[in-house]
Amino acid sequence: MIRVFKPSYDNLELEAVAEILKSGWVGLGPKTAEFERAFASFCNVDHCIGLNSGTAAISMALRLLDIGAGDEVIIPTMTFVSGAHCVINRGATPVFVDIDRDTLNLDLNDVRNKISSRTRAIMPVHFGGRPVRMDELKAIAEDIPIIEDCAHAAGSKYRGQSVGSIGAIGCFSFHAVKNLAMGEGGAIVLNDGEMAKRAKKLRWLGINRETWDRTNLDRSYWWEYSIDEIGVKSHMDDIHAAIGLVQLRKLEEANQRRREITLIYRNGLGSIEQLEMPLEETDDFVSSWHIFEIKAQRRDELNLFLDRNGISTGVHYKPLHLYTCYGSQPALPVAEDVFRSILTLPLYPDLTDEEVVYVINTIRKFYNDR
Fold first, then answer.
1. Which CATH number fits the domain that encloses residue 325?
2. DSSP readout, 265-287?
3. Where does a domain end: 248, 277, 297?
4. What are the tens digits of pLDDT across the range 224-279?
5. How many angstroms separate the Cα of 183 from the Cα of each of 151, 178, 179, 192, 351?
6. Which residues make Cβ contacts (< 8 Å) with residue 210, sequence separation at least 6?
7. I need a surface site. Which of 69, 155, 205, 286 has the fewest CB within 10 A?
8. pTM for the complete prediction?
9. 184 and 313: one domain?
10. What count of other Cβ atoms lies within 10 Å of the Cβ of residue 197?
């Protein structure tokens, strides 16, 4: 079975994990700090705070902005559920906006229409790795903070700027299927030093000195610390950070391989009238190509045909406003229409040219035979 996503690991990740296990320090420690420095430099920001998931990153961003009961956060309906869940878990209300049909990113006009006196943040998702038009969004937002959801977009750039560095806070996921795959992990990136200090405490239950930091203190009172604000346990650990450092060194090459695969797909499938390809890159942006989604006529039949022929696919995503857990929501017609046709094709660095051609030929067979 050709999987839709697959992490790309080799002996370098194995050796990195073995080094941590041998060191005897596997929790939050020096390797996490090393990853944070490296990823902050990669994103061209002052601070990176390593966390245990992308969901924790979004939750932390909302907490740092003091978003709570009575507040609203604007979020695109076409994304994973964790972002909206985090908003609700803060006591706030997610306000869902429609999407742009071509990019699947949030519709900027709908954002403008949904801003109210209660809007405390806007949370764009760089869908599939394609950056949102951040300059236009910032003009619309004015003083409203922007939380960039970069879960799909490690390595993406908008007009030369790394995603995550453009808004107030950038949130990354390093889940096993992501471009930078730790297995589990996440991070926030930002330039605000006071927020960064607060985040470091909040990720470790509000404790003001992490365990590794206390190893270098006067041993007579090493157990002393203060807690001024209640946090949660959501920090990264050194095992995942070690994997992340290896993955970070590979990221640009891996994303280039993803770009090559998308070109093979585009050349092989672009002439099929029943399909619509995702937009190509322009001078304005570089995509991480986390997802290669097509819009396909008879999508459900095609999905089953591919599965019977050993090819996994995905649908990213069912619009959030259609889930009953969010209550009755206004219609968002573009997302509801696009949802019926989108299909995610296999895309990961270890996918061979031969496997990509097999996927293409199988799709061509489906439409030629029907």
1. 3.90.1150.10
2. HHHHHTT-TTEEPPPPP-TTEE-
3. 248
4. 788 999 999 999 999 999 999 999 999 999 999 999 999 999 999 999 999 999 99
5. 14, 9, 11, 28, 19
6. 28, 200, 204, 235
7. 69
8. 0.96
9. no
10. 13
Q: Which residue out of 31, 178, 201, 250 is catalytically annotated?
A: 178
Our answer to whether residue 201 is catalytic in this structure is: no
The whole domain housing 121 covers 11-248
Check which CATH number belongs to the domain holding 71 and give it: 3.40.640.10
- Asked whether residue 5 is assigned to any structural domain, the reply reads no
The residue ranges of DSSP E strands in the chain, in sequence order, are 47-51, 72-76, 93-97, 119-122, 147-149, 157-158, 161-162, 169-173, 186-190, 275-276, 285-286, 292-296, 342-345
The string of pLDDT tens digits covering residues 282-332 is 999 999 999 999 999 999 999 999 999 999 999 999 999 999 999 999 999
Query: What token pair was written down for 175?
Result: 């889940």
On whether both 99 and 189 belong to a single domain, the answer is: yes
Question: CA angle 167-173-179, nearest 5°?
Answer: 105
Q: Indicate if 202 and 344 belong to the same structural domain.
A: no
40 within domain boundaries: yes
Looking at 248, 270, 298, which one is the last position of a domain? Answer: 248
